[in-house]
Amino acid sequence: MWYLYAIATALIWGLAELFYKKGARPDEKYSHLKICVCVGLIMGIHAVYVLLTEDINYNFINIIKYFPVSFLYILSMALSFFGMRFLEESISDPIENTSGAIASILCFLVLKQSMSLFSLFGVALIIIGVVVIGITESKDENGRIKKLGKKLAIIAFIMPFLYAILDGTASFMDAYFLEAEISPLVNVTEDTIELVANTSYELTFTICAIILMIYIKIKNEKVNIIYQKDKILAAIFETLGQFTYVFAMGGSAIIAAPIISSVCIFSLIFSRIFLKEKLTKRQYIAVFTVILGIMILCISEEI
C-alpha cells in the first residue's frame, strides 16, 4: 500500500509545484513568505480536523519531539519558494527532487537499509544529471544574470540545491521517526505514528505561518490570503501530498523517497503545458538524465 501512497504523493505534489510557480511572483517581494503562510494555515486546518476526528491519542509534546524534522522541511520549502520566483520550474524541480536520492543514500549508509546495484546506478544517473544541469545553466546565456544581477541570479540558482540537501536530510530523519519501535515520538503505535508525525509537522507549520504573518505586517505588506488563489491551491495540494507522504515513508523509505522524487516528471509536464516553459537541448538532456535515474529507482522496487 505504501507504494501507491508514494505514487499518489508524486502526482499531487506535481500539481502543487505548478501553483507554487504561478504564485511565486518575482515582482512580489514577500511572495515566498506569503506562500508559506498559506501552506501553514491550510495545514493547520487539516491538523485540527485530524485531532477532532481521529483517535490518535495525540500528545502535544510531539511538536517539540518532531521539531528537527519539521524545521528542515519548512526551511527547505521557504528556500524553494524564493528560488522559484526567478528560476524556471523545469530546471529547479529536477534538482530539488534529487532529495530522494540523498535520503536513500543516508538510509543505506546510516540505517543500513538495503539498496541493490540497480538502485545505485539510478542514484549515480541522478547525480550526473544534476552536475550537467549545473554546468549547462552556468554557461547558458538565458539573460538571467543580466535581468536579475549576478548576486541574485547566483542565489536563486543555489536555492534548489539547498532544498535538495535539507529535504533529503529530513526525509532520512523521517525514516527513523516513523519506526514505531524506536521513534522519539510518544503515545504512538504502528497504526497512529504516521498521523501523529504529520499532525506535529502541520501544527509547527501553522505556528510558523502566524509568525510570518506578523513579520509581513511589520514590514507594512498586506497578506490578503483570500485573494491569493494560486497560493491557496498550492497549499491545498501540498497538504494532501503531505498526508499521503508520511504513509509512503512509513513503508519503505529507501525506495519511497526516490519514487516521490518522480514528482519532477509531472512538474515538467505541467510546466511545459501550462507555463509554456522552454528548454535548450542541453537542458533537456540533463533533465531527462535525472528523470531516468528516478525511474530506475522506481523500477528497482519490482526486481
Radius of gyration computed on alpha carbons: 19 Å
Largest sheet: none
Helix residue percentage: over 70%
- State the end-to-end distance: 17 Å
| Shape estimate | globular
Content of β-strand: under 5%
Structural class: mainly alpha
Taking pLDDT < 50 over at least 5 consecutive residues as the criterion, the unreliable ranges are none
Mean pLDDT across the residues is 82
Number of helices: 13
Order of helices and strands: HHHHHHHHHHHHH
Q: How many distinct folded domains?
A: 1
Number of strands: 0
Give your account of this protein's structure.
The chain has one domain (about 1-300). It is globular, with a radius of gyration of 19 Å. The protein has helices spanning about 1-25, 30-55, 60-65, 65-85, 90-95, 100-110, 115-140, 145-150, 150-175, 195-220, 230-260, 265-275, 280-300. Helix 2 packs antiparallel against helix 4 (about 65-85) and helix 5 packs parallel to helix 13 (about 280-300). By secondary structure, it is mainly alpha-helical. The two termini are about 15 Å apart.
Give the topology:
Blueprint: H1 2-23, H2 31-53, H3 62-65, H4 67-83, H5 89-96, H6 99-109, H7 117-139, H8 144-148, H9 150-177, H10 193-218, H11 229-260, H12 263-274, H13 281-300
Helix pairs in contact: 1-11, 1-12, 2-4, 2-10, 2-11, 4-9, 4-10, 5-9, 5-12, 5-13, 6-9, 6-11, 7-13, 9-11, 10-11, 11-13
